[in-house]
Design a protein that fits this description.
The chain is an alpha+beta fold and 129 residues long. The protein is built from three helices and six strands. 31% of the residues lie in helices and 35% in strands. The mean pLDDT is 94.
Length: 129
């Protein structure tokens, strides 16, 4: 990837189009939003694969970012993220969800990359169609 400076931040070209990154959210994605999105989407993708391997395919997985806590210092680093997974599927059971959550955390590269630096709270519910 290559990033090029623009008037409002940086752009990069991807196979899906131009990604605009800016500290001004009216001009592009803020860097912390991209980090949170990467962690959430990685977790959801890993969870989907785990459910498929367990022969409990999800009809839908929705991930709500319930909270993002940033430090008060100049860098405003991310201190905590709360992700809430709503998993919908006819074969998904409450008994299996703690193991699914454990495997999701263990196998998500983005979650593993921030362990010890960012507190990531993960909650879930089994939804219905």
């Amino acid at each position: 990837m290559q990033f090029h400076m623009t008037e409002h931040g940086f752009d990069t070209e991807t196979e899906f189009g131009t990604l605009h990154i800016s500290s001004n959210e009216e001009k592009g994605f803020r860097p912390y939003q991209l980090m949170v999105a990467s962690i959430a989407a990685c977790g959801g993708g890993v969870m989907r694969k785990i459910l498929d391997k367990m022969r409990m395919p999800a009809d839908d997985i929705a991930i709500a970012v319930k909270e993002v806590v940033r430090s008060d210092d100049d860098a405003s680093r991310i201190m905590k993220i709360h992700l809430h997974f709503t998993v919908i599927g006819s074969d998904i059971t409450e008994e299996k969800m703690p193991r699914i959550m454990e495997l999701t955390e263990k196998n998500c590269s983005m979650l593993q990359s921030v362990m010890g630096c960012i507190e990531v709270v993960k909650t879930y519910e089994i939804g219905s169609k």
